[in-house]
Specification:
The protein is an alpha+beta fold. It has 4 domains: 24-89, no CATH class; 97-340 and 435-451 and 468-510, no CATH class; 364-431, 2-Layer Sandwich (Dna Ligase, domain 1); 525-829, no CATH class. Strands 4, 5, 17, 18, 19, 20 and 21 form a 7-stranded antiparallel sheet that branches. Strands 7-6-11-12 form a 4-stranded parallel sheet, covered by helices on one side. It is globular, with a radius of gyration of 31 Å. It holds the Pfam family Alpha-E.
Length: 833
């Protein structure tokens, strides 16, 4: 593709590099390309980009690509493909999509016009209904969509808009213009991923990013945030991002947006309707929520008036909307605009409602609910892509659309033809369009790949503003007609390149607009629940790891560590804790390996760390990248094969060090608000339970010195004991140190004191000065430990302490955490024996 001068003897080294990269880069026949113009020359904006790229050595390019990938991995950027339960690593293309400023202004103008039109259409469909009454839109084209919600008809949107956020999938058409491939009005996704893409590439290639004068995206997010704040009816509104939960395909994005915009991440169970308002359940009781940026489909928002089977929504939400008590962005029912059945009517609607033609055309579409359009499609069936009129699936055919009649067998073609003839309202025919291509880096050279660009527009006080950039999805196959993240696509950042320097911007407000805060508000009950159990799971894992290490040391170094009788006690405890299914008399090496890594056993170290990881995944907006990275590293380490006793001990010790790192991060970096307290309470109560169980097992009345040494090792108190007592391990002082000593940070008494302090700092709901049940139990537990004597401790009293701790844990859950059938997850019901 490069001109002959590049290959001449006077060509610059940079030019020769670019020529080598692009030697096999060929525009596809009849398909536009972002890098190469129709006359075969590279576009100026790409020439600037690759001129810089060619100044880097191959090792430097590899290093920077590696830095980008490492950031994605360490930050836990991920997505979930449809139908999958596990997350996938985010597939970022290392080369951004480049668009020059002049062309972008044309795109932005088309997007603003289109969303203005769609807002007018929604206002009429849910208001006066003149478009249907006058025949501008057939009633069946609207009523056939499951997204047209009769319950919303007549409701004036709180905040004044049906659409607060809009996205359009666009591609460059054969004529070189940009075309709209589809509208996204339900709950447009991709904005958070676009932000992550920008953060990654702008860090990996900071100097290139600056020199290319790429437009910043922070002003877009700031304007959108200001709009949502202003749409509420009070000065300091509480705003939440409503997510279906961590099993959503794009849950990471929901957490990213919540963290970046400073919003609460909430699920349906976190919310409750009281009076004419929506409230969030917090540890301090119900707190009013003013605005919901929803990521839940409309039909699932209210089981009382919409889908009765939904467990994702808030009962009574639609009635609150009628009363103007909450702003929901976007309004329920706005997804009706995504119906392909409407596309063919938009050009006339633009002339009717706006008095102008569409600035950006969309794919030519024929809705088969009209006789003339249906006959057109049936006459030229092979020339069309057949899509569902109201959803991704084509009725009668498996999988997402489109269906290409030319690729079907004779019987399938007949079936499709009959389906369109019998019920045409369910189908549309769309002109076959091949996506334009953009360069990707593939094994040290550039190759063209089809792409779709999602562009975002947000409502603001000054009208609609368009994000300068967007979310680009690139297909792996050259013949792709549709791009989906579940079908092997990769994502790319989008740089809108200016000729002049771009002012650096940030989402931080000016100094004089900020009211100083030290507490950001009470933690939602679900978040407190997850933080509490995150602490418990990590502490359980630590207890299992300490047992595994104690069991493995004598296998690795015969003659060191506990002997036969004490080993049996360790093995029995691992069996009792559900860390292994092997019997207590099985081979110690096998028990240790299974207790370390058998994910099928709920008490194994791997299972417990994975459980902690699941809880942490629900807290991504609250955990730092470093904390998430430590948990991920622990899970990855425990999942790696271990071949011998040395490997078991090494893995256990390294994971224990990582647990200590996480504890240090929580202690030193986490704000001392209620969320931190619940994380600490989870660890404290589980550590107390573990220490009590260790004491019952190894500090029994006839305990040997070896048993007591094991106990001191398990609770990490060997050095403390040796510094206090110049004799071997004796029962009374060991019991006192492990159970009753309030100065020992590993003792049961110390945990009880900490628990009492944390609970006393939490809000109370009971008036009249009476303390609530969790604090009453904590005070009683601490009193028991303060007044107890080591000489009187025995198996019975230790068991009673354990029961007090379990009762306290239950009381904390009943008081502060969500209730109901969906509140208790299965893994939380599997208590330790």
């Amino acid at each position: 593709m490069a001109d002959s001068a590049v290959h001449g003897s006077k060509a610059r080294p940079r030019d020769r590099k670019v020529a080598q990269w692009t030697r096999d880069y060929v525009r596809l026949p009849g398909i536009p390309d972002e890098f190469i113009t129709p006359d075969g020359a590279p576009r100026e904006v790409w020439s600037r980009f690759f001129d810089y790229f060619a100044s880097l050595s191959p090792p430097e390019i590899t290093r920077r690509f590696g830095a980008a990938d490492r950031h994605l991995r360490e930050a836990g950027v991920s997505y979930r493909a449809p139908g999958e339960t596990s997350e996938r690593a985010w597939p970022l293309s290392h080369v951004p999509l480049l668009i020059d400023e002049v062309e972008w202004q044309q795109i932005a103008a088309g997007i603003v016009q289109r969303v203005t039109l769609l807002e007018e259409v929604l206002t009429d469909l849910y208001g006066d209904g003149r478009l249907i009454a006058d025949g501008a839109v057939p009633a069946a084209a609207i009523a056939g969509s499951a997204e047209y919600l009769r319950a919303v008809c007549g409701i004036k949107p709180p905040g004044g808009r049906y659409l607060n956020l809009y996205a359009a999938d666009i591609g460059r058409g054969p004529d070189g213009r940009w075309w709209v491939l589809g509208d996204r009005t339900q709950a447009p996704s991709g904005m958070g991923y676009a932000l992550e893409n920008r953060l990654v590439l702008s860090r990996a290639f900071a100097d290139l990013y600056k020199s290319m004068n790429a437009e910043r995206v922070a002003p877009f997010f700031e304007a959108f945030r200001d709009h949502l704040r202003a749409s509420a009816d009070r000065d300091e509104p509480r705003i939440g991002v409503l997510t279906p939960g961590r099993f959503s395909e794009t849950y990471f994005e929901h957490a990213t947006l919540a963290r970046y915009l400073g919003y609460l991440l909430v699920e349906g169970d976190d919310l409750a309707v009281s009076g004419d308002r929506v409230h969030i359940r917090t540890v301090a009781g119900l707190k009013r929520l003013d605005v919901l940026l929803r990521r839940v489909d409309s039909n699932s928002l209210d089981p009382l008036e919409l889908d009765a089977s939904s467990q994702l929504g808030v009962p009574g939400l639609i009635d609150v909307l009628r009363k103007g008590g909450v702003v929901v962005a976007n309004m329920p029912g706005s997804g009706v605009i995504e119906s392909r059945a409407l596309l063919g009517f938009l050009p006339n609607l633009a002339r009717r409602l706006l008095g102008e033609d569409l600035k950006m055309p969309h794919i030519a579409t024929w809705w088969c609910g009209q006789k003339s359009a249906r006959e057109e499609v049936l006459d030229r069936l092979d020339d069309f892509a057949i899509e569902g009129a109201y959803g991704a699936a084509v009725p009668g055919f498996p999988g997402p659309g489109p269906v290409l009649a030319a690729d079907l067998s004779a019987s399938e073609r007949d079936r499709l033809r009959n389906a369109i003839s019998n019920r045409g309202i369910d189908y549309v025919g769309q002109e076959l369009v091949s996506l334009s291509t953009t360069p990707v880096w593939d094994d040290g050279k550039l190759a063209p790949r089809p792409f779709v660009l999602r562009v975002f527009a947000a409502a603001t006080a000054d009208g609609w503003t368009v994000m300068p950039g967007g979310f680009c999805r690139i297909a792996e196959r050259l013949d792709s007609r549709a791009v989906s993240m579940g079908q092997g696509a990769r994502a790319a950042d989008v740089w809108v390149v200016s000729e002049k320097a771009v002012t650096a911007s940030t989402l931080l407000p000016t100094v004089d607009t900020v009211r100083i805060k030290r507490i950001t508000g009470w933690v939602p009950s679900r978040a407190a629940d997850n933080l509490f159990w995150l602490g418990r799971y990590l502490e359980r894992a630590e207890g299992t790891l300490r047992l595994v290490r104690a069991l493995s040391v004598p296998q690795r170094d015969p003659g060191k560590g506990p002997q036969h009788q004490s080993l049996e006690r360790i093995q029995r405890l691992l069996v009792t804790w559900g860390a292994t299914a092997l019997g207590a008399r099985a081979n110690p090496s096998k028990i240790a390996a299974e207790a370390l890594q058998n994910e099928e056993e709920f008490g194994s170290a791997l299972s417990l760390v994975r459980a902690a990881q699941r809880n942490a995944a629900s807290l991504r907006e609250r955990l730092s990248p470093d904390a998430w990275q430590v948990i991920t590293q622990m899970a990855e380490r425990l999942a790696q094969p271990v071949e011998d006793d040395d490997g078991v001990v090494s893995t256990a010790e390294l994971t224990l060090q990582e647990l200590a790192s996480f504890a240090g991060l929580a202690q030193e970096n986490m704000n001392r608000a209620a969320g931190w307290r619940f994380l600490k309470m989870g660890r404290r109560i589980e550590r107390a339970i573990n220490s009590t169980r260790f004491a019952r097992q190894f500090a029994y009345d006839e305990a040997t010195g070896e048993d007591l040494d094991i106990l001191l090792t398990l609770v990490d108190c060997q050095i403390t004991y040796r510094s206090r007592y110049l004799v071997g391990a004796l029962l009374p002082p060991v019991r006192d140190l492990v159970v009753l000593d309030p100065y020992n940070p590993r003792s049961v008494a110390f945990q009880a004191q900490e628990l009492n302090d944390h609970i006393a700092s939490l809000p109370t709901l009971r008036a009249g000065g009476l303390i609530e049940r969790p604090q009453r139990l904590a005070v009683a537990l601490q009193s028991t430990l303060i007044t107890a004597e080591a000489a009187t401790l025995d198996a019975k009293s230790l068991f009673a302490l354990e029961q007090q701790l379990l009762e306290l844990a239950d009381a904390i859950g009943q008081r502060y955490f969500p209730h109901g059938a969906s509140a208790m997850r299965p893994e939380k019901l599997m208590g330790l024996a």
